[in-house]
Amino acid sequence: MSKKDVKNTSNDLDKAGLSRRGFLGATAVGSATLMGAATLGGAVMSRESWAEAVSESRAKIHVEPGELDEYYGFWSGGHQGEVRVMGVPSMRELMRIPVFNVDSASGWGLTNESREIMGESAKYLNGDCHHPHISMTDGKYDGKYLFINDKANTRVARIRLDIMKCDKMLTVPSVQAIHGLRLQKVPHTKYVFANAEFVIPHPNDGSNYDLKDKNSYTMFNVIDAEKMEMAFQVIVDGNLDNVDADYTGKYAASTCYNSEDATDLGGMMRNERDWVVVFNIERIEKAVKEGKFSTLAGSDVPVVDGRKGSDFTRYIPVPKNPHGLNTSPDGKYFIAAGKLSPTVSVIQIDKLDELFDGSLEDPRAAVVAEPELGLGPLHTTYDGRGNGYTTLFLDSQIVKWNIAEAIRAYNGEKVNYIKQKLDVHYQPGHTHASLTETSDADGQWLVVLSKFSKDRFLPTGPLHPENDQLIDISGDEMKLVHDGPTYAEPHDCILARRDQIRTKKIWDRNDPFFASTVERAKKDKINLESDNKVIRDGNKVRVYMTSIAPSFGLTEFNVKQGDEVTVTVTNLDQVEDVSHGFVMTNHGVSMEISPQQTSSITFVADKPGMHWYYCSWFCHALHMEMVGRMLVEPA
Ligand code: RUQ
Ligand code: CUA
Ligand code: CA
Q1: Index of the ligand 2 atom closest to the CA of residue 616
Q2: How confident is the model over 333-389, as pLDDT tens digits?
């Protein structure tokens, strides 16, 4: 059967008057008629996966043109530095939110507003984000913020979900490489937990390079989510990889793969067990409040010592170089994936109280199961029905397993806790089931982020896309339904129900995003909503103009060669979707001005003569005519 035949089959279904719902009922059609399509694309798609792809589940992901998706997906853009907004289950990319990068379209990293948010770190043009997470209240998404880490330049950023723009960025002091990032779930996201991965000497001034020295360590970083300021830091033994929080608000737990304090691969694999370190947030908070902390040179952030033997932490040994740490949505377990061990370690959270008060002495007593799942377990996600889904990097599979049964097996019962293993393509890292990190986990969809795509797509030269696969987990069996090529490199993603995200249609004139620009205009006695004026202040020139489709308020302004020019544009349009842009040709100047937004950008007018500026967003039939000229008088 050719591709065309397959298409005709679904057309025939349409013609036969079968609605989507009707088609869902017509399972026989899916499995019998279309099995023949298995050879489509030769070796590319297995019989099995194609048969699955055209079945019920496939019909569910077909979001008709003009229809809306059920879920928002937020994808990390990895070392590309942005966050991507997806529609799920269609897997259509809806938007990109620049964060730790420079974006030519919106002017992120170029405009004064974005550079002020980036602060000192605006000088970095790169980033490496891994873990996007939405703020919560009572263990459920509240849709307010999304937080994300930058491993490359040790930053944490916050995105306001009402406008889908980054509004805060913080460089975490005294540490290197923020990797794991999670949020306090209960009672609400008061804190952002951020793991600094690498051990460094303190002070890091070249006087000491010995990682076994007691002044060499890394820290667990706790950020005040509302203020986006450091709350406190906790010194740990070993390094820190991934983290998650519990559903009481009391604990967070991180994996450590380098308990060896080694500097090379061989060294980091020496120990049979590394550990999960559990932080008693309540105790640490109390100590900080009582002033029982120290500070490090050049920083006023409270630091407490959480190394072994401390009241603030417990170290639970787990096999070998663990990676992902994921809390089950029933709040009962922290589950740490073994990576170099074929197991995951199930830590029972309600045993932690006893570990901390001393009534349980052996930290291993908190481990209630260690099921063997396959090779290279990296991350686990949940369906809210008692099952875990763990990616197996080396086996290129996702394995569905039952947590309660794994615990019974650990206690000696003969029970097969493995429910299904499904091939994914290929080498999966993170996996995320819908709403899995909240108590709303609904077991509908699961995304597997495969690090390799190999032969799944048209070749693109030596650099391949990743492959983000969508799997239907609503039934007893996992069904692979979609291949999604993505650019480097969505380490992680999350899914939220669409009603949990509420966005603005146009900007509010009082939005804090451009408040400092409004403030500056006030000082210049400018009414941004009506004035089109040029203000000279020595060799600084401030150009204020409005825009309304299809024209700028100023079609011409004069400056002198060498002037530092700041152009501020206020978009007076109130119609949803009528965004303008401002580009000054040959000056590296570009920015977005969406309805009711004010944006500004500063550059040096270093070339005499006539320079056209134009609107870069196709806003009107006369968009091409939306232009003006900067006339630069030679010095
Ligand atoms: S980590 S592939 Cu950067 Cu989230 Cu596990
Ligand atoms: Cu305004 Cu195009
Ligand atoms: Ca190790």
Answers
A1: 2
A2: 999 999 999 999 999 999 999 999 999 999 999 999 999 999 999 999 999 999 999
For 229, the enclosing helix (H) or strand (E) is strand 229-236
CB 98 within 8 A of CB 109: yes
Report how far residue 388's alpha carbon sits from residue 380's, in angstroms, rounded to the nearest whole number. 6
Q: The tokens 């969505």 sit on which residue?
A: 490
SS3 call for 31: helix
Q: Which helix (H) or strand (E) holds 67?
A: none
Which two structure tokens, joined as six digits, stand for 602?
């500063």
Residue 15 burial (CB < 10 Å; 0-12/13-18/19+)? exposed
Residue 36's pLDDT is 31
Task: Establish whether residue 430 lines the binding site of ligand 1, counting it when its CB lies within 6 angstroms of any ligand atom.
Answer: yes
pLDDT digits (tens, 9 = 90+) for 101-132: 999 999 999 999 999 999 999 999 999 999 99
Protein residues within 5 Å, CB atom, of ion ligand 3: 257, 268, 274, 321
Torsion of CA 547, 553, 559, 564, to 10 degrees: -30
- CB neighbours of residue 425 within 10 Å: 21
Q: Nearest ligand, CA of residue 152?
A: 1
Nearest CA to ligand 2 atom 1: 580
Q: In 80-175, which ranges are E strands?
A: 82-88, 92-98, 133-137, 140-150, 155-160, 165-171
Tell me the ligand closest to 572's alpha carbon. 2
| Amino acid making up residue 365 | A
Q: What one-character DSSP code corresponds to residue 573?
A: -
Nearest CA to ligand 1 atom 1: 491
> What domains lie within the chain, and their CATH numbers?
172-370 (2.130.10.10), 512-633 (2.60.40.420)
